[in-house]
Amino acid sequence: MKEKTTLIKNAKIVNEGKVFSGDILIEGEYIKQIDSSISAKSADVNIVDAEGKYVLPGVIDDQVHFREPGLTEKATIATESKAAIAGGITSFIEMPNTNPQTTTIEKLEEKFAIAAETSSANYSFMFGGTNDNLEEVLKVDKTNVAGLKLFLGSSTGNMLVDNPEVLEKIFSSTDLLISVHCEDEGTIKANFKKYHDEYGDDIPVKFHPEIRSEEACYLSSSKAIELAKKTGARLHIFHLSTGKETSLFSNKIPLKDKKITAEVCVHHLWFSDEDYEKKGTLIKWNPAVKKKSDREQLWKALLDGRIDVIATDHAPHTKEEKDNVYTKAPSGGPLVQHALPALLEMYHRGKISIEKVVEKMCHNPAILFQVEKRGYIKEGYFADLVLVDLNNPWTVTKDNILYKCGWSPFEGTTFKSRITHTFLNGSLVYQNAEFKDVKAAKRLTFTR
After folding, report:
1. What's the pLDDT at 153?
2. What residues make up the domain containing 80?
3. What pTM value is reported for the model?
4. Are residues 194 and 299 in the same domain?
5. Active site residue: 61, 308, 313, 384, which one?
6. How far apart are the C-alpha atoms of 235 and 227, rounded to whole Å?
7. Where is the Amidohydrolase-related domain (predicted)?
8. Is 313 a catalytic residue?
9. Do 31 and 64 fall within a single domain?
């Protein structure tokens, strides 16, 4: 069977710190050629005119919760991966705190089987560590799985790893990349008691960052880093939320040589504690959205290279759940459809260059997780590509939200930039708000 060929013409290509005009030839699943001008060799080449549009590598989101198995009233791999594709995210790494949890090889393989059947985007999963599953952790094939996820705070089920001896053993025993959620449980419990004693269950949500405080984050992050330095483990700290934590990271060496890396999420770059009054529990996340000054310091660390990647921590709950009083409203929100438009909005505001958006959302996740042949626009790489019109405004409304939960913290926001096309492994899977009936998603592989 003849491989399909697509020629993207007249694009502004964003790759490796440069923006340049050119054409991209796709043959089968791969980028065959990039040049200033490429001619179609035959009549059956599909030509996409990208005049006036930017072409970005597909975004790699290193932290999502797609809720399957077991929590499918909130989301499924099918629904959320589709929303991701519409948001220019072509690859995702999903977390282990589903039901049952992904803490055995058997449960991990069951998840891969679901994704192989239903995912619209390329996929991999984190394996979950607990206080008592080291034996299973050591069975994980690092070339086949994104990494190991440890909750050092705020876990569901039995996934809180709070035994220091177990923690040190895991850090010492595995050469998997270890990703951690860092919030100190003791600090949070003491803070919570103070507010609960005063307000009962209906604690005003503005106190969420006081309960899940800067100190809780810093204490946990600094301990994890200390342990990584002691054991030589490869550590990646998820969703930094405080300015104080940024001092723990370095920009002195290239990302590929770093043993300790950090991520920031879209919501911590967009919202601040000033938004609780209007948004309420819709912006209740763990770790909490904190002060404006924290947000500014996160931006500074992102731009100077101390923070390496931007992710979503996409974690949907039903609107009914979120509408509860503070103690009963779960933390987390849906973001994959709106993350890239939100960052491009920050580009329009002069906060970040489009080259830097691509570095932090595409190139760096590929380097950090050693994702094979993705995250760049390069000949011989998989053709995961996103076409963006930077001047085609649209407003987030109930009608265009694709998440199963049906709501977004960005509802009512107008974005200047629109994703017009998404290519996945060489196939056009999304065009002008319509999904193509093409099954193109693949399991991510890693060059380790």
Report:
1. 66
2. 58-369
3. 0.97
4. yes
5. 313
6. 9
7. 54-429
8. yes
9. no
